[in-house]
Prior knowledge:
Elements: H1 3-27, H2 36-48, E1 52-57, E2 61-67, E3 75-81, H3 108-124, E4 132-138, H4 147-153, E5 164-175, E6 179-181, E7 184-187, E8 191-198, E9 202-203, H5 213-231, E10 238-247, E11 253-254, E12 257-266, H6 269-289, E13 293-300, E14 305-307, H7 309-323, E15 328-330, H8 341-344, E16 349-357, H9 378-391
Parallel strand pairs: 3-4, 3-5, 5-16, 6-15
Antiparallel strand pairs: 1-2, 2-4, 6-16, 7-14, 8-12, 8-13, 9-11, 10-12
Helix pairs in contact: 1-3, 1-9, 3-9, 5-6
Amino acid sequence: MPLSTTIQQHANSLAPYLLGVRRHLHKYPELSFIEHNTSAYIQEQLTTHNIEFTAGIAGTGIVAIIKGNNPNSKCVALRADIDALPIQELNTAPYTSVNAGIMHACGHDVHTTCTLGAAIILNTLKDKLEGSVKILFQPGEEKLPGGASLMINEGVLHNPSVASIIGQHVQNSIPVGKVGFCKGMYMASTDELYITLTSKGGHGAMPHLTTDVVVVAAQLILALQTITSRNANPIVPTVLSIGKMQALGATNVLPTQVVMEGTFRTFDETWRTQAHTRIHQIVNGIAHSMNCEADVRIEKGYPFLINDAMLTEACITKAKQYLGEDNVLPQDMRMTAEDFAYYSQHVPACFYRLGTGNASKGISANVHTPNFDIDEDALAIGAGLMAYMCIE
């Protein structure tokens, strides 16, 4: 019997179990770096299936290990993120979150379930493994500095050394049963911008006696856009967006302070550093010229994510064998970010999309929204595919 068929049978037999795991995780979500109950639940499942693991990595993280015939010959890692988002769920399913204001709105419950399922399959078939497999259950993907960076700092890519790493992410715009891959640069770096302008406020009818920081902020927002339009190399994708501006004046009150927050994203580390300098120059220059004070803080986030060409091509080939050629789709670069990028900066990596949408069932809401849900048929597919690519 072909290995793909064997794994599909294992995955299908696990489907009811995976459904229960996903619904438990979805019902009891926890925020980044405080996923204590989630971590304990994963540890219980690993113990039940006799999978060796070490807990307490980066706080709530877990590293499981599955050893094949020659465990020191090669090690492949699989990664799942376990944290949820501060969103109030609006779904009314039996497994809707019971933790107020917290929801698995980015599918990390699915990632964890599929990766746990892959671990169980791989442990069952470890006689077919030549090397070993590390399973990383990682905290804090949704919050800087990112659990991936902390896991790496605690040595998860060593002892044994990881030769390559695979991760997946749900996507409702891809129908269930299909997956998507992108070779090379895939997801952007991400930095958070915090800018405060302060000066003398006053009456809206007497602007000559004030420094109107709202007007300064307006000029600043437009000037910052020249970083992408006139400073960035046109062939390097770059985004600078101001998503928040708070000016607590009134119809006839010019405030003393304006607070702005935004994001900067790109695919080039040298340019990223240069852009940070340019942001400071523009903010301080405009503020000085308009007689107000400026405070600029750039919180450096995740690096850009690069999918190793050879590894990703191999995964595409195996995905076509497992799912059928028509069910493996190309994906474009994205300006969204993922802390899986840290792993991709250290070892060959492949981060792909698992189709979870189903228009006929009304399952189409995007991630990070209160109505997000998935077609749970994706659970067995995701677990089996990950196990198959890992073995091959």
